[in-house]
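[Automated response] Your request has been received and processed.

Submitted sequence:
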Amino acid sequence: MSAIGGVVGDMVDHDGFVADLVTFFEGKLFNSYTATEKLDMAAYVVCFDTGTAPAVGYTRTLTKSTLASGLSDWNTLQAQASAGNIDLIVRGTVTGVVHGLLYNPVSNNYKLDTGNTVTQTQLEGLIQAGDVMSVMGVYPGTGAADETGRGAAQGTKLNLPMAPGSDDAAFARVWPQVTAHLERFAPEFIILQCGADSVEGDPITHLRFSAKTHGFAARELMALADRLGHGRVLALGGGGYNRANIAQAWTAVVENLL
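Generated structure:
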């Protein structure tokens, strides 16, 4: 159950677990407003363009019985991916085994977390044979290896794309590139964004890290900051779509910062 407290400065203090704006405005802080005024405030908040395509977050679960009715939505999501508005992912069973897939608009096929590719027609056949898959539009990704910065910052940016299914061992193998990059530029301050959607069990991502990897990164960055002579590391909470994973990852980070 959500908890909405008092006002801190110019902000409302709450625990972040609020289903929607209508529920948010049911908090005791808004008791003096009429139902109409609350709806008006909710409508006002959502009228601002976030730049996020409506297809972001849209999901259809496809089974043998729902495939025919869901094809139109599936094709719409593919068109949105081709337009660059979303990335299109699939999560479900492939011949009875749970896998994640990413749609490639250029080749018009899907890349499995094993590296193999399949077509939409092949996936439809698998669903007809009993597999269950959910197609979802997610925010279009960035972070390609060739994105290294622009202008005067060219070369200062390091992206390390991780293949679907990557685990703690895969993370450990690429980590030396992180420390080498940071030591090369010797930042005066390190910010760690502690997103937890890379932890295994997240419903919309396809990585298989454990909370230990988050703790490892925090510990390594603390050691690096000490080597650089300033000891300054700021850890910021990040996203994730499995609340237990978030708690475990953040706890591991805090433990290794202390």
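Summary generated for your ticket: Helices lie at 21-24, 35-46, 67-82, 120-128, 168-185, 211-227, 243-257. The beta strands are 4-8, 11-14, 59-62, 87-94, 97-104, 109-112, 117-118, 133-138, 190-194, 233-237.
If you did not submit this request, please reply to this message.
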